[in-house]
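May I ask for a single protein's sequence together with how it folds?
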Amino acid sequence: MEIPSRVRRDTPAAYTVPPFPSLFWPPQDSSIILYELDDMWKFTLFWTLILYGLFHLGAVGVAVLMQGGKRTSSWKYLWLVPLVYALIAGAEALIAGTLVGLMCVSRRCRSFSATGPGPPLSKQRTFRGFESRAPPTAASKNEPIQLANSPKSLAGIATRAFGLGIALTAGATATLTLLLCTTSPLWRLPFFLTALALFHFLEFWTTAAYNTRAAEISSFLLTANWPGYAVAHSVAALECLLTHLLWPTTNNNTRWTTTPLGLGLEGLSPAVTAAGLVLVVLGQAVRSMAMIHAGQSFNHQVQYQRRADHVLVTDGVYAVLRHPSYFGFFWWALGTQLVMGNVVSLVGYAVVLWKFFSGRIKHEEAYLVSFFGEGYVDYRRRVPTRIPFVP
């Protein structure tokens, strides 16, 4: 059997072969699209390697400029380093998402070759229209091609991965630069950005890896509880910035100290910062472990009907924490505010999150009792949440 990447069928007379697989003037005949898909992702991979090399050469160039031919290093161009590596991370994330999408579509469309040429595409007829021409396999029934603007859009996932890649790299680079090269306490701001970017990436990654069918754009949780979620983080960042501008610390080791609202707590701040870092790492680890261990039984939304694959998980991290994902986020969020030296946001986060999780747990457990009966009642009696004042 001839594969689509080597055969054209029903090529329109007016069609001109482009100099490379076309992303900008796509043909309207389905057989030509099948012809080009294989070469398209190979072409993209080729330019990925080229761009990757150019970006790293740029980073080396920045390092040379920093030396400036002097005996001592010059930090004049230091700001270019996080910018260059932010571009690297963003480009890699975007291209990786594009490659995955193109390869998936290419492999998917191979199954159509045995049924002959397909009808032309139109507004009413897209790739979904060719599913009926594929062999009746389980994959063709359960894994449709995800088009743009759908909840599982590969384009939407790649775009968000691109943004998170930039945020994570820029935040981590700025944090390390400020910590290692200055005595400024403002490393806390890019640290907060880094923690947020890593959190949202892991939300999607753990879902995609261990509960694949539930993975979609909303799994990033970037717009969860919008706009309150965004407002809370914006207020926290603003409080941290104003605190260090209006009440600068007088301690010699300023990078580890802070003066929250000028309350004279400088002596406590290194210990508070360390405690916050521990909570951030612990909270993130527990939440990710909970999502991984629960697998298909985990969902970001409260489930009102029991699925066939929904089981009561009571071992692993669930043996010591009844709602480990909630526990993890609660203490992760409070840890970020301890690191940032925020007082107002710390109290606000604690109150809002306690109110949210206490209400959600009661609501969710009412359905869990109806799903699992006495089994869940006994589990609830034995295992605590370890969230303050939530039994």
